[in-house]
Amino acid sequence: xxxxxxxxxxxxxxxxxxxxxxxxxxxxxxxxxxxxxxxxxxxxxxxxxxxxxxxxxxxxxxxxxxxxxxxxxxxxxxxxxxxxxxxxxxxxxxxxxxxxxxxxxxxxxxxxxxxxxxxxxxxxxxxxxxxxxxxxxxxxxxxxxxxxxxxxxxxxxxxxxxxxxxxxxxxxxxxxxxxxxxxxxxxxxxxxxxxxxxxxxxxxxxxxxxxxxxxxxxxxxxxxxxxxxxxxxxxxxxxxxxxxxxxxxxxxxxxxxxxxxxxxxxxxxxxxxxxxxxxxxxxxxxxxxxxxxxxxxxxxxxxxxxxxxxxxxxxxxxxxxxxxxxxxxxxxxxxxxxxxxxxxxxxxxxxxxxxxxx
Length: 358
What we know:
single chain; alpha/beta; Rossmann fold; 2 domains; 6-stranded parallel beta sheet; 14 helices; 12 strands
């Protein structure tokens, strides 16, 4: 049998979620590696398509950064007047959420999701404005760069040497109804910078020498591609779970390495990484914690933890399961994650078997 009857609890949660979804607005995120890849341009193009189809669209907030090609796409769209805020002698302009809620369009554009609102605003962050719009049943298009995801804040700082202060909770992207990756190769982005299509010439030169160094752009692009791929994998896993699909789908390779307390653990982890790299696959290091684990010598427990840390350092997702039967737990987990390759340690034969069989 390839499929089994769905879990009643899963069906109940799905029904509750669907009921909530009926009144909640839909969120689409235009996602990219960094500024200048074309997120806002793509969002405005998609908004025109919606308007041409009869959808009531307004621009809640868009940052053109003086880019002529982006400004041209604002023509023909209704722009919500900004809210003027006076702060310490400075006049600031912000998104007017109250007017937007009264106007109640079918779709509103909210550029730069990670933006910090001016003091005195109802919400400190723009992503919180977006959540209120969605709760009110308004669909939202928005943009965000990979460096603004909270989960990648430390990674981006290590890559670029710049600590990004404005971040968005991972849950915002995870709960989005649609995420469209706007991808641009680093060389093309650098050319756009030199042509003055991202920043003014003096700003562009400074950017190329700092944050926009080619190595940084390659790494940030890789992060954006991986994050998008992970989202697709998660969507597939949710579908498989909700529909009780137990057979493995050949939708992409996933390698799982089984970790134990044996000294050969690091070798297995490295073998799994090599296999995953060759297959262009994601990989998972899994340890099953049985009741015996608590009685294990501390040295063995430390070895397990060190092996899992090594796997994480090499790029694996690490998972600790609990159960009495190691084999059953591993196979069950492998099915839920659509694992296509499993690496386990070769059992050590008893010395008498080595003597008899060589």
